[in-house]
Amino acid sequence: MGINEINTLSLAYLGDAVYEIKVREYLISLGIQKVNKLQDKAMSFVTAKKQCEYINYFINNNILTEIELDYVKRGRNASVHSHPKNTDIVTYKWATGFECLFGYLYLEKKTERIDELFNMILEVKE
User: Which residues fall within 8 angstroms of residue 83, CB to CB, at 6 or more apart?
Assistant: First the structure.
């Protein structure tokens, strides 16, 4: 099965896991030992609101390639039938686009690009 045949929401599902691993690796590298503290710190990265902010930063600063932007748009435009109560649908759709991007990059084995984008997120956060 080619990457273009994969359901967009499945790409986002995978991308969510890929991004979560990057966040967890980063937080552990800081020396944080307590799981509760790790979880609290992770929330500053993984909420739909934060993912929406990061993807819009990438777009507004022309960081993404055309194909990367296409995958973001595919994710954003995916037909979702529900979303978390604490997040509006527009924010949730942008977060889905963010996750779709990470899923695409992972399947294409573009780990250096994943690292590059994650490092940009770290710079924006600081």
Answer: 48, 89, 92
Residue 102 included in any domain: yes
- Report the domain count for the chain: 1
Q: Which of 51, 67, 56, 46 has the alpha carbon at shortest distance from 113? A: 67
Query: Residue 4 falls within a domain, yes or no?
Result: no
70 tagged catalytic = no
Report the alpha-carbon distance of residue 13 to residue 114 in Å, rounded: 16
Q: Which residue did the predictor score with more confidence, 81 or 120?
A: 120
**CATH number of the domain where residue 104 is located:** 1.10.1520.10
- The pLDDT value given to residue 84: 64
> What is the C-alpha to C-alpha distance for residues 104 and 100, in angstroms, rounded to an integer?
6
E strands, the chain, where? none
CA distance 74 to 68: 10
Would residue 95 count as lying in a domain?
yes
CB 63 within 8 A of CB 120: yes
